[in-house]
Amino acid sequence: MASNFQVIVVGLGIAGAVSAILLERAGIDYVVLERAPQLRRNGTAISLNAQTLRLFEQLGLLDQLLAKAMPLRQIVFFRQKKMTSKNKKSNNNNNNNSNNNNNNLQRLTAIPLDQLEHRHGYPSILLSHADLMETLLAAIPPDRIHWNKRVLDVTEYRACVAVKTQDSTIYDGQIVLGADGAYSAVRHHMFRHLKKRGRFVPDSDFEGRRVRLEMSVAAGTAEHLDRWMYKSLRESTVDMMAIVGDDGPHMAWLLPLKGERICWLVGTKQREIQKARNDHAFRLSEWELRADRSMYDQARDLKLPIAGTLGDLIDRSNSQDIVQVMVDEKCFKTWFSDRMVLIGDGATQAILDAVCLVNLLHQMPKTTNREIHRIFSTYYDQRYPVVQSALQSSNMIAGLAAKTGKVANMARKIASTLIPQAAMTYALDRLMVHRPIASFLPPPPARGKVLPRTQTSMV
Ligand SMILES: Cc1cc2nc3c(=O)[nH]c(=O)nc-3n(C[C@H](O)[C@H](O)[C@H](O)COP(=O)(O)OP(=O)(O)OC[C@H]3O[C@@H](n4cnc5c(N)ncnc54)[C@H](O)[C@@H]3O)c2cc1C
């Protein structure tokens, strides 16, 4: 490694893994500390598009990812209408004849994605979290990863930073990169240091006020499904589906994957989990923990637009891989201190954070506090507005799918009928024009009709 400084990466999720690959290719010395003893499987899925696939092509990983993924045709929204006695009876009759017929399911709207490859050079794809992580891990030299290293403490000194893990090992470096997820230990220590030095941290950033809980989500992947029962498993491109119910507190997402698999998500709205919110264990839970079965079992009878019920998919899922996450709409304002910096929150945004930060670190001439501050400030200025607007868009899409009631139905109707295709294309173009790559590697071939924006962290 050519660099005169070492980066300690805390956490080996998507954010930590992409950072490690980029640091490796940039010739910057680094080590990764991960609290788990090995890669843990979970039954979720990730959608990637041109924003990150251009970087993966540059890193030589695109073909491997495409081989494990399904191209997405569209996102389709369905409404599960309230059961009246009349359509209950009609549904029962239908169920006797066919597994597939559900009079109460109304198709609301669809966001087409199949034009993306032509416009931005890469398709939108769906792949399992496990397949993505396996591909990323294979690109990191194993001796750089230290498993079973839960970080307990981080201390900043004038010219270095020391990280202590649960087995009392101390790692010294010049920069700590916190990629340790939503309940980051690095963030906790960063706030402590900033406060100790009398620096300003907004009240809203403190843990106690962190979670504005919108929804709790359980997710798993049904495997070894019958291709003849589920038509989507026989197709070369797939639809991501969202089903929102008038009747209950639940909404569901379906994400068909390669290899006769379907990832499912069940969201349970806030009021239903108020009780659980006061439970300490629940509040601190992260998505790698096993999900509480009652949270998704309540939605078993939900009829699916593909075939059968959600219960059919739950029964085909490995219960060890079913995870639970809390979804909130928080965007922290504090991202760095003297020698600690945070990345992550959403797979795509985490990858974009990583490439921006490593591009800047690669150009860093020395590791004085002043120079590090300049690099971290530039990183923040470049990324914070993008992350904030991405959060707003994802909240809008999630809200479109999750909210119930007359106003929400009206909003969906407006989205489906009044927003012209041209406006949708314009919005996607604005998003996808931002597809950054590593400044220190040869660029991938130019692809797509809409050229990527020039990168500020490359100059
Ligand atoms: C069902 C589902 C679908 C999703 N789909 C998408 C999608 O399509 N697109 C998208 O952008 N995002 C999606 N997301 C969100 C995305 O998966 C996550 O935001 C992303 O995986 C977070 O990655 P991360 O690396 O930042 O954090 P994590 O995956 O949480 O990884 C953090 C790592 O840090 C480790 N760690 C934590 N604390 C410590 C410590 N003290 N010491 C050492 N190690 C520690 C953890 O063990 C873990 O390995 C989805 C999430 C779910 C649940």
Automatic annotation (TrEMBL):
Residue ranges, compositional bias (Low complexity): 90-104
InterPro entries xrefs: FAD-bd, FAD/NAD-bd_sf, FAD_mOase_fung
Source organism of the structure: Actinomortierella ambigua
Protein's UniProt name: FAD-binding domain-containing protein
Domain FAD-binding: 5-197
PANTHER family (alphabetical): FAD-BINDING DOMAIN-CONTAINING PROTEIN-RELATED, FAD-DEPENDENT MONOOXYGENASE ASQG-RELATED
Annotated region (Disordered), positions in chain: 84-105
Family statement: Belongs to the paxM FAD-dependent monooxygenase family.
Pfam families on file: FAD_binding_3 (PF01494)
Swiss-Prot/TrEMBL keywords: FAD, Flavoprotein, Oxidoreductase
UniProt feature coiled coil, ranges: none
Gene Ontology molecular function terms on file: FAD binding; monooxygenase activity
